[in-house]
Write a structure and sequence with these properties.
mainly alpha, Four Helix Bundle (Hemerythrin (Met), subunit A), 154 residues
Length: 154
């Protein structure tokens, strides 16, 4: 399955990669909520850690010098989601996980819409010398052309 995901992301635009990371957060939040229902503390902790890893990754890649106010808003969003996920885990509350899911889904849907816009994709794409695909950072994000081949399996 991991090989499929890696190949599926190979030709993805920068916007598609951001959407894939958000999808990963959602997948792990759903898994954490289900683990709460089963009373599986270990599975909940693993899922929460994976979701938080992605949030930290997205936060770390923000470029405040380029992204300006949108990057600042995203930074605040990531801090808020991080706190919500930690609180949901500490409380072992499926309801709190569902609230975090709703918040992440709203922002993911906005990224998904941007990824459908040919102008937005064109603005965020540039030729990359080391790869045959076209990819560049989303405005406000550090260029990480190796993202599809990274350790993320979202």
């Amino acid at each position: 399955m991991a090989d499929y995901r890696e190949h599926a992301l190979e030709g993805a635009s920068a916007l598609d990669l951001v959407v894939a990371l958000y999808d990963g957060i959602l997948r792990f939040l759903y898994a954490a909520g289900e683990a709460v229902e089963r009373g599986d503390v270990t599975a909940r902790r693993i899922a929460v850690k994976r979701a938080l890893d992605i949030v930290i990754h997205l936060q770390a890649r923000l470029r405040m010098d380029i992204g300006g106010r949108p990057a600042q808003v995203l930074s605040e969003f990531y801090a808020s989601i991080f706190a919500q996920i930690v609180q949901a885990s500490q409380a072992a509350s499926r309801l709190k996980f569902e609230h975090a899911i709703d918040c992440v889904r709203n922002v993911r849907d906005a990224w998904r819409e941007a990824a459908k816009d040919p102008e937005a994709v064109a603005v965020t794409s540039k030729p990359h010398a080391a790869a045959s695909r076209s990819q560049a950072p989303v405005q406000g994000y550090e260029d990480r052309s190796d993202l599809a081949a990274s350790r993320w399996t979202a």
